[in-house]
Write a structure and sequence with these properties.
The chain has 15 helices and twelve strands. It is an alpha+beta fold and 602 residues long. The strands form two sheets. The chain has a seven-stranded antiparallel beta sheet, covered by helices on one side. The chain has a five-stranded mixed beta sheet with strand order 2-1-5-3-4, sandwiched between helices. Helix 4 (120-135) packs across helix 6 (166-177) and helix 9 (301-399) runs antiparallel to helix 10. The two termini are 54 Å apart.
């Protein structure tokens, strides 16, 4: 006989292997697993396996592991650590993060495997919380379209019912995912479970049974009690027996007998198809009944200690989140101020560039006018020389006037012509002189415009943001006054001032951090109370969003792909306005005797 055996235990997010002594009991393996993964709320969990007949079974803790009904020659022995019982109120009962995480993963997988029915619009909302729990806050620069392509987030039944592409589903999931900013992983998982626990099939173990008439029915065992369902409807129970009404549970062969606390009421008797089913029902009944009664008594010292530690941890996380939120706000404010400064710097540089261009244009125009003035002066000098030459010619002609009369008349005629020419040349010379004076005046005006442009450029470079407003901490320093003969501005100089701005902002952040560390517990309590009040408003908003999404995707629904669960949910819970809890309230309103009699008549 071997002295040890190997066992492989699979959890929802890990795989463990142990070598155990041959006489190890189920309790010892269970304790080894819970200590390894750090589970303290052990009452929810069990070790699950598939027996030699292929049926599901739970390890008996008080029995040796090797003596239990494993398939022959299985090595190592295959076990699954999972929730055997589910909390009635997840927010109240799930104390530690690791317990909540494992329950979250199990419920999420049950919804994806369609073991728990979930309406399409609720499936999208749950998927958004699952994405928040895995990826953290949504950032479009980090998570571009298509980042959920390989994720399993929706039940296949939901995907098949609508003419929607994966991109269309991702768009709707991301739309809700983006609204969960600032939510930590444990908070997102808790929000997921708070919605999932209201689903009709959450935490229910179904077993086929018959009543005395032989009618095929389903027995549902959950945290609240025993429910009876018609064979074609696992969503809506027709009879329910809360655990508070059950006094004793027993079975003999395939007959199961439940004795109510009301001794005047007849026993609730049903039959199963297999003896091993009765054993499973008995285990689940006893465990759920014990937890039901424990919830209605004062917490043990261990649970009180766990809740106190969890509350302290949540308080610490809330304070840390507030501190991070203040830091994030301060950082965003610093970034905003930095962006404003950079924008003003760009505006300043643009003004300097335009002023510099105007100066260059003025200098070019001044040079052009100088050239034109010199050209006019040269033309005027040339005309003066021609006029002098004409005057000389007149004098020479007059000297020859002593010649013959004919020559005299001819000379006089020439003299008149020369005189007219000289007068014309003098008029032309005066006109050119006036033009030269006009050009000189324009040149003076251009030089004055050039000087104004230089002064404007110097004013821009030295005046920055205006002298009337006092400079605040972190703002750019004004540029130094440049000499008047500088034609261009060094536009790279303000960079050093921007660096000093960042230093000032960092100092402000450090000061904000110190102030935050001084926040007292009263402020935190007020913040928590505010969150509680906001939850009611959030629930209304959530219901409106679910209704809007349902309306939006209804037009894309393929009617012939609807399942029986879809039609039952639409008929019982949408059209009639019922909920899981209102249905339970109605079917438990009568006496136990009437409900037992009703069961026998089904």
């Amino acid at each position: 006989m071997p002295k040890s055996f190997d066992v492989r235990v699979t959890t929802m997010d890990a795989e463990l292997e142990f070598t155990m002594p041959w006489k190890t009991t189920g309790q010892e393996v269970f304790d080894m697993v819970t200590k390894t993964i750090g589970i303290r709320e052990i009452w929810f969990f069990g070790l699950y396996y598939t027996d030699s007949k292929g049926f599901p079974a739970w390890i008996k803790l008080n029995k040796k592991v090797v003596e239990q009904d494993f398939p022959p020659r299985q090595n190592p022995l295959q076990l699954v650590f999972k929730s055997k019982f589910f909390p009635e109120d997840v927010e109240e009962e799930l104390i530690t993060d690791i317990t909540m995480h494992l329950v979250f993963l199990q419920v999420k997988q049950a919804i994806l495997d369609m073991d728990i029915y979930c309406p399409p619009e609720a499936s999208v909302l749950l998927a958004s919380y699952a994405v928040q729990a895995k990826y953290g806050d949504y950032d479009p620069t980090v998570y571009p379209p298509g980042f959920l392509r390989n994720e399993s987030l929706l039940p296949p039944r939901v995907i098949d019912q609508y003419q929607m592409t994966p991109e269309m589903w991702e768009e709707r999931i991301t739309s809700w995912y983006s609204e969960h900013g600032g939510m930590l992983r444990d908070e997102a998982e808790m929000e997921y479970l708070k919605i999932a626990q209201d689903l009709e099939m959450y935490g229910v173990n179904y077993f086929p049974i018959t009543n005395k008439k032989g009618t095929d029915l389903w027995l549902g065992v959950d945290a609240l009690g025993l429910n009876v369902y018609e064979v074609n409807d696992k969503l809506t129970p027709v009879i329910s027996f809360p655990w508070s009404e059950i006094r004793n549970i027993a079975f003999k062969d395939k007959k199961f007998t439940i004795k109510p606390t009301d001794k005047k009421s007849p026993d609730f008797v049903f039959h199963t198809h297999k003896l091993r089913t009765n054993k499973m029902i008995l285990q689940l009944n006893m465990g759920n009944h014990d937890l039901f009664m424990r919830r209605r008594h004062s917490d043990t010292m261990e649970i009180q200690q766990m809740k106190a530690q969890a509350k302290e941890e949540r308080t610490r996380k809330q304070a840390e989140r507030n501190r991070l939120a203040h830091e994030r706000a301060a950082r965003e404010e610093a970034e905003r101020e930095k962006e404003e400064l950079q924008q003003r710097l760009r505006h300043f540089e643009e003004e300097a560039r335009k002023a510099n261009e105007m100066l260059i244009q003025s200098e070019e125009r001044s040079e052009m006018l100088q050239q034109q003035a010199r050209q006019k002066e040269d033309e005027a000098a040339s005309i003066v020389r021609k006029a002098q030459e004409a005057e000389d010619e007149i004098q020479r002609v007059r000297a020859m006037a002593a010649k013959t009369e004919e020559e005299k008349r001819a000379l006089e005629s020439k003299a008149r012509d020369a005189h007219d020419l000289a007068q014309q040349l003098l008029r032309t010379s005066d006109q050119r002189q006036k033009e030269a004076e006009l050009l000189k005046s324009e040149l003076t005006t251009a030089r004055r415009a050039e000087m104004d442009a230089k002064n404007q450029l110097l004013a821009v470079t030295s005046g920055g943001y205006g002298a009337s407003r006092p400079r605040v901490a972190g703002e750019l320093e004004p540029m130094r006054q440049l000499p008047a003969d500088h034609a261009l501005v060094n536009q790279r100089q303000p960079v050093a001032s921007a660096s000093s701005s960042n230093t000032d902002l960092h100092g402000d952040l450090e000061e904000a951090m110190v102030d935050l560390m001084g926040d007292d517990v009263d402020e935190l309590s007020k913040a928590i109370e505010q969150e509680r009040l906001e939850y009611i408003q959030k629930s209304k908003k959530l219901q409106h969003q679910l209704t809007s999404l349902k309306t939006e995707i209804t037009v894309l629904k393929v009617s012939d792909k609807q399942t029986d669960e879809d039609r039952l949910h639409e008929e019982n819970y949408v059209q009639k306005g019922e909920t899981k809890y209102s249905t339970l309230s109605k079917i438990t309103s009568g006496t136990t005797r009437k409900r037992v009699e009703h069961f026998e008549q089904l």
